[in-house]
């Protein structure tokens, strides 16, 4: 990476690599203060977060779906033939004949190919509109709000860089903010928090819902068969983020249900806490809502997590562990798999799949390994280095969230003159071995979709 902003301090190579991995895996785990990075480095991190976001990476899946046409004729040729009328029959073929079946098959393939192309345009448009509109609104707010503009001037951060960096980070659910304090410094700017909350949901947990709603609107407005085909044949489109209308409704209900439960518990336990000092009732409501929305996958925070209760931290750990599209689906909504599908799944299992552990088992192994690498600090500095803080850090890295309790010199049992507080994550005080293990956890979490069904060969009975 390029040179840091300050010449007096330069991050170590392991910290630079750790930050790059954290940005690429949209994890926002930090080992150095964000204000150390120059404007050029922030732009580089913005690019890493942009290409590492779920919506951007899913576009490659659409490209693969487009190239999945393995027919003897090119899909483009089929499409042009059907559209230009080169497939012509002078007499209507008898029903059920091979000629009629071939024409219907070609027409269906052409429609599917055009629907895949339309879906690519919709996802790309969705991606661009959110970033352009979001960046513009954040830029306008920061420019017009005196308190926010003063913060930018004091910290020497360009408003344009801050706006685009923050929107990209929020939409990709990374959680990096160009300020050392993350969003704590903006906890009184309720307008900015309200602008970012929808971006968090649009880029992750509610993406399938918003995508289907967008396609539904386009179908009603344009009356094009391609959009209707996408809605009716979502499983055949080869795009994992497409869901049925019922599943989207259940997903939305689950997301807002989790937010409501967390919001009620957070308000009941932290309303009058030190973390909320100086805020009015309206600012507290917006700030607590912002915090619980971020607990699933974004990791932006307006409070110091080390100051909130252990019960809330445990709740956050559970929320961070859950995959983004977790939803409550009643049993009657599940369709039973056919015997043929079940047999094909059983035949697909190999020895590796049978011996793999569950996700919880791997997380437990990672926590144990980190407790081993940091065993001396666990013994000498128990208030900072404890199993709960380590568990929060590991699960946060696995969920690609970025929540961290940080590190405080005031909590040290043995006072040392050389200790200085800094706005970095808890992992910033770990050994290089511990940081390397957390890098593996971040990659493991970013690729969690390939391991969610692991461990089923183990029977706990």
TrEMBL record:
<keyword id="KW-0813">Transport</keyword>
<dbReference type="GO" id="GO:0005886">
    <property type="term" value="C:plasma membrane"/>
</dbReference>
<feature type="transmembrane region" description="Helical">
    <location>
        <begin position="302"/>
        <end position="322"/>
    </location>
</feature>
<dbReference type="InterPro" id="IPR003445">
    <property type="entry name" value="Cat_transpt"/>
</dbReference>
<keyword id="KW-1133">Transmembrane helix</keyword>
<feature type="transmembrane region" description="Helical">
    <location>
        <begin position="244"/>
        <end position="266"/>
    </location>
</feature>
<comment type="similarity">
    <text>Belongs to the TrkH potassium transport family. HKT (TC 2.A.38.3) subfamily.</text>
</comment>
<keyword id="KW-0406">Ion transport</keyword>
<dbReference type="Pfam" id="PF02386">
    <property type="entry name" value="TrkH"/>
</dbReference>
<feature type="transmembrane region" description="Helical">
    <location>
        <begin position="118"/>
        <end position="142"/>
    </location>
</feature>
<feature type="transmembrane region" description="Helical">
    <location>
        <begin position="192"/>
        <end position="218"/>
    </location>
</feature>
<feature type="transmembrane region" description="Helical">
    <location>
        <begin position="42"/>
        <end position="62"/>
    </location>
</feature>
<dbReference type="InterPro" id="IPR051143">
    <property type="entry name" value="TrkH_K-transport"/>
</dbReference>
<protein>
    <submittedName>
        <fullName>Cation transporter HKT6</fullName>
    </submittedName>
</protein>
<keyword id="KW-0472">Membrane</keyword>
<dbReference type="GO" id="GO:0015081">
    <property type="term" value="F:sodium ion transmembrane transporter activity"/>
</dbReference>
<feature type="transmembrane region" description="Helical">
    <location>
        <begin position="355"/>
        <end position="373"/>
    </location>
</feature>
<keyword id="KW-0812">Transmembrane</keyword>
């Amino acid at each position: 990476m390029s040179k840091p902003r300050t010449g007096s301090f330069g991050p170590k190579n392991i910290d630079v690599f750790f930050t790059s991995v954290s940005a690429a895996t949209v994890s926002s785990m930090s080992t150095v203060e964000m204000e150390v990075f120059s404007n050029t480095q922030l732009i580089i991190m913005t690019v890493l977060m942009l290409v590492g976001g779920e919506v951007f990476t899913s576009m490659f899946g659409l490209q693969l779906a487009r190239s999945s046409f393995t027919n003897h004729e090119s899909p483009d040729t089929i499409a042009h033939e059907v559209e230009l009328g080169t497939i012509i029959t002078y007499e209507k073929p008898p029903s059920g004949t091979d000629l009629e079946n071939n024409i219907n098959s070609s027409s269906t393939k052409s429609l599917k190919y055009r629907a895949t192309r339309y879906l690519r345009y919709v996802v790309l448009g969705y991606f661009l509109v959110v970033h352009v509109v979001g960046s513009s609104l954040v830029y306008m707010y920061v420019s017009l709000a005196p308190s926010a503009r003063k913060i930018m001037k004091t910290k020497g951060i360009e408003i344009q860089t801050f706006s685009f960096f923050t929107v990209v980070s929020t939409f990709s659910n990374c959680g990096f903010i160009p300020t050392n304090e993350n969003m704590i410094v903006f906890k009184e700017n309720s307008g900015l928090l309200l602008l970012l909350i929808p971006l968090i949901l649009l880029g992750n947990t509610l993406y399938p819902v918003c995508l289907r709603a967008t396609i539904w609107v386009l179908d009603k407005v344009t009356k094009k068969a391609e959009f209707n085909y996408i809605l009716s044949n979502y499983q055949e489109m080869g795009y994992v983020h497409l869901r049925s209308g019922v599943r989207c409704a259940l997903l939305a209900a689950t997301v807002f249900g989790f937010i409501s439960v967390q919001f009620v518990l957070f308000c009941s336990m932290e309303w009058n806490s030190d973390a909320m000092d100086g805020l009015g009732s309206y600012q507290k409501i917006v700030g607590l809502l912002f915090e619980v929305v971020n607990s699933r996958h974004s990791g932006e925070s307006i409070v110091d997590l080390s100051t909130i209760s252990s019960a809330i931290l445990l709740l956050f750990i559970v929320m961070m562990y859950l995959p983004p599209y977790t939803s409550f689906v009643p049993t009657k909504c599940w369709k039973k798999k056919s015997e043929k599908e079940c047999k094909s799944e059983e035949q697909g299992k190999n020895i590796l799949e049978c011996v793999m552990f569950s996700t919880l088992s791997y997380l437990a192994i990672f926590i144990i390994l980190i407790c081993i690498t940091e065993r001396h600090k666990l013994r000498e500095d128990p208030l900072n280095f404890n199993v709960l803080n380590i568990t929060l850090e590991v699960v946060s890295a696995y969920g690609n969230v970025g929540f961290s309790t940080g590190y405080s010199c005031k909590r040290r049992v043995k006072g040392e003159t050389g200790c200085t507080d800094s706005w970095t994550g808890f992992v910033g005080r770990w050994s290089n071995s511990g940081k390397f293990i957390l890098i593996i956890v971040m990659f493991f979490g970013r690729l969690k979709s390939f391991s969610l069904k692991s461990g089923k060969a183990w029977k706990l009975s």
